[in-house]
């Protein structure tokens, strides 16, 4: 199963739309996971229409309309792996231990908020993934997103992608 991981899209405040490169990934993936900060429902509607399956939560920049449609935390089992999707995880220092304690039944935690890509594994085996932002790089050199694959109850091929300049 091929996954696309997104967060912090901020459409239409930071960008009018997702980059073409990201829409092409949407077409290739079986599941799109979005870890919040949509800002408005338009992108959610577009991703829902174009994705085979969309799993998402709201973020701190999402208003009542987005929060009415999406949960603060989304939990799903994909190919035998337990995923949790949240927006915020707090400070980077001690993140692995805090999240492992908070989500002991989760195999993969997808989060956003910082716009800083993150890929680590806690001592408990919890994998923490932040895809950065495909539309607002902030202090990062590039806008980013992640892809991954699941096979046989394991996560494979986790890859951070940079948005190519057109």
Automatic annotation (TrEMBL):
Report the cofactors: a divalent metal cation
Domain of life (superkingdom)? Bacteria
Q: Give its E.C. classification number.
A: 3.1.4.-
Q: Pfam families under this entry? A: Metallophos_2
Gene3D superfamilies in the record: 3.60.21.10
Q: Does the keyword Metal-binding apply?
A: yes
Metal-binding keyword on record: yes
Q: Which family does it belong to?
A: Belongs to the metallophosphoesterase superfamily. YfcE family.
What is the protein name stated in its UniProt record?
Phosphoesterase
What is this organism's lineage?
A: Bacteria, Bacillati, Actinomycetota, Actinomycetes, Mycobacteriales
């Amino acid at each position: 199963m091929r996954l696309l991981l997104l967060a912090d899209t901020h459409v239409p405040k930071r960008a009018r739309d997702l980059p073409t490169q990201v829409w092409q990934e949407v077409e290739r993936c079986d599941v799109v996971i979005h870890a919040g900060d949509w800002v408005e429902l338009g992108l959610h509607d577009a991703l829902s229409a174009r994705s085979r399956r969309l799993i998402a939560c709201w973020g701190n920049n999402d208003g009542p309309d987005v929060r009415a449609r999406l949960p603060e935390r989304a939990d799903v089992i994909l190919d035998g792996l337990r995923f949790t999707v949240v927006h915020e995880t707090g400070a980077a220092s001690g993140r692995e231990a805090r999240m492992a304690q908070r989500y002991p039944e989760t195999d993969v935690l997808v989060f956003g908020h910082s716009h800083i890509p993150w890929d680590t594994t806690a001592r408990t085996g919890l994998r923490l993934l932040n895809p950065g932002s495909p539309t607002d790089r902030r202090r990062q050199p590039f806008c980013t997103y992640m892809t991954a694959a699941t096979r046989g109850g394991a996560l494979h091929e986790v890859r951070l992608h940079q948005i190519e300049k057109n």
